[in-house]
Amino acid sequence: MTQATPLTALQFVQSNSLPALVQVEIEQLILRGELAVGQRINESVLAGRFGTSRGPIREALRALEESRLVRSEKNRGVFVREISVAEADEIYDVREALDQLIGRRVAERATPKQLQALQDVIADMDDATASHDIKSYHALNLKFHDLLVDFAGNARLTESYRLLTKGLLLFRLRGLQDGGGFAVSNTEHKAVVKAIAARDGAVAGCLLRNHAVESRARMHRAAARQPQE
Fold first, then answer.
1. Whole-model pTM?
2. Helix (H) or strand (E) holding 227
3. Which runs of E-coded beta strand occur in the chain?
4. Model confidence pLDDT, tens digit, residues 63-102
5. Sheet-wide strand order for 77-80
6. Closest Cα to residue 119, out of 177, 197, 216?
């Protein structure tokens, strides 16, 4: 009997990371609105798009269900999930507290290189604002907050924050579009980074928390504009 050739270390890593890579790609499709809220996700179409079998797609969707971006219905399939405003409010209760901690920690430990990275993203967001490019602005906004939580330097905080806030991402896009404009949002970002540059952890924390409070308000304004069923 011929023994199977053992996987090389690289092959092992590739085979085990493929579902994770597919998960990131599907998540981006959802966040960009290419997979709309309530839409059924076609595994075969995604497998063709990514050049994989359906196995990694299924694994990725299971992970996305755990992070509450999709939902599975027996005998019907997997759908892009939409959270209620009430559930989003509960998430914001926690997010506001975490943002205050993140702002304080980043002000205390950000390196000059990290500070420059934040300023560069803000400049790019100014460009997106000037050209009224909401999709680019939304992507940059996500990047800005990802950088902040990374720069806080606490792996558990990063993991908890990202898992908690995934469900808010579509609400944040809607809030920028319909809840008051993204120029206001970037003004808030600039104030946070100014406090971080001044190494004022108390102010940076309060400003970032207030930014989350305003984000919640934009969400409510946007939700109020949605047609009632």
1. 0.77
2. none
3. 40-41, 70-73, 77-80
4. 999 888 899 999 899 999 877 888 889 999 999 999 999 9
5. 40-41, 77-80, 70-73
6. 197
